Amino acid sequence: MTPNAPAPSSPPRDNILKHATFAFLIALVGYIFFYSCDAHLRTHKGAWTVNFQANTNGEPLLVVDQPFLKIHTQILLAGEKATNTPGIVEFKDPRHLRTPFGRVRFHDLTYLPGTIVLDVYGHEVELLPRTLVLNTKEFAWTNDITYVLTPTNKIPGLKDRDYKGRR
């Protein structure tokens, strides 16, 4: 070793806390970004809106609307009597599942508009983005049409269940 040579220096110390903080901030920003994107994808199409009302004869009438999918149709339950006060239900989350008449048998509201299955006076009404299912029969969404369900095409076993689906 020559007398004028500098003494070997120790390598710089890595600051693990600095690297961990930097990685945490990157992960946090990524999480916030992807969570907000997913939240937008879940809700941007909007919810099903069902107006539970009665026609002039007192028969239940469901008016189904979904603005994003441009759906507007009606379902008349002929031969039944609407017993409760009419109302509008927007199926946007599981807290909003109370209906003026009938009950919600199934719902999947993960990505709106989602899937809603109603049991109304013994008739099964399924609202799917791709199709309308009435008493297990599929119908293409047709705007400004009224589907009429009569007591003769009820599904056996639906009408004798309580609001929780029990016999």
Most strands sheet: 5 strands, mixed
Name the average pLDDT: 88
User: What proportion strand?
Assistant: 25-35%
Q: What's the alpha carbon Rg, rounded to whole Å? A: 29 Å
Question: How many β-strand runs?
Answer: 10
The residue ranges in which pLDDT falls below 50 over 5 or more consecutive positions are: none
**Element string (H = helix, E = strand):** HEEEEEEEEEE
Question: Largest sheet, order of strands side by side?
Answer: 4-1-2-3-10
Helix content: 10-25%
Q: How many distinct folded domains?
A: 2
Give the overall shape.
rod-shaped
Distance between the termini: 96 Å
Structural class label = alpha+beta
Number of H- or I-type helical stretches: 1
Please describe what this structure looks like:
This protein is of the alpha+beta class. The protein has two domains: 16-45; 48-153, no CATH class. Helices cover 17% and strands 32% of the residues. It is built from one helix and ten strands. The strands form two sheets. A five-stranded mixed sheet has the order 4-1-2-3-10, with no helix packed on it. The chain has a five-stranded antiparallel sheet with strand order 5-6-7-8-9, with no helix packed on it. Strand 5 and strand 6 (115-120) form a beta hairpin.
Q: What layout of secondary structure does this protein have?
A:
Blueprint: H1 16-43, E1 48-54, E2 60-66, E3 71-77, E4 87-91, E5 103-108, E6 115-120, E7 123-127, E8 132-134, E9 137-139, E10 146-149
Parallel strand pairs: 3-10
Antiparallel strand pairs: 1-2, 1-4, 2-3, 5-6, 6-7, 7-8, 8-9
